[in-house]
Write a structure and sequence with these properties.
Largest sheet: none
Structural class: mainly alpha
Strand content: under 5%
Number of strands: 0
Order of helices and strands: HH
Oligomer: single chain
Shape: extended
Distance between the termini: 37 Å
Radius of gyration: 15 Å
Length: 71
């Protein structure tokens, strides 16, 4: 299963990020994150974990990511 389609990335003012190198890095990072999450999800299912609980935890995990650059 491929990573979901990438959005047009925006800065905090709503302007489109147009730098091709930045877009490339974002795409690579999101592909890696997706694959790691997919692998962890499949492993957990094979170990007998509940799919609904896994999805809920993954959502909590993402919600817990902190912005170290926040002013």
């Amino acid at each position: 299963m491929p990573c979901p389609k990438m959005p047009k990335w925006l800065d905090s003012q709503g302007n489109v990020i147009a730098c091709t190198e930045k877009i490339k890095v974002m795409s690579e990072n999101m592909d890696e994150l997706f694959q790691m999450a997919q692998d962890a999800f499949e492993d957990a299912l094979l170990m007998g974990c509940d799919e609904t609980q896994l999805r809920h935890y993954f959502s909590q995990l993402i919600d817990s990511v902190e912005n170290p650059y926040q002013k």
